[in-house]
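Hi U.,

Before I forget, here's the chain from the pilot set. I'm dumping it here mostly so it's searchable later in email.
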Amino acid sequence: MPGYIMLMKFTAKGLADLKGSPNRVNDAKAAAQKMGIRWVGWWATVGEYDAVGIVDAPNDEAASTLALATAAKGYVTTQGMRAYSEAEWAALTSKL
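Structure:
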């Protein structure tokens, strides 16, 4: 399945309820599973983004739906990008 990186920033609502964020991560895992998305991991980060999530999704639509459903709750904003594995990257570059 294609890989996706989700970059997240806390909103004011998310900052006001940081203690609830572990529960929201678990909720996102459950939502991903119901969508047929494999949860690779989630990390809190320091810098421009507050958190990074990595998933493998069946397609762009599924990854986008998860990102939108997450952002719609109002605790984070999301920015997603397609990520290619080493094997996928080698296959792409072999065609050059």
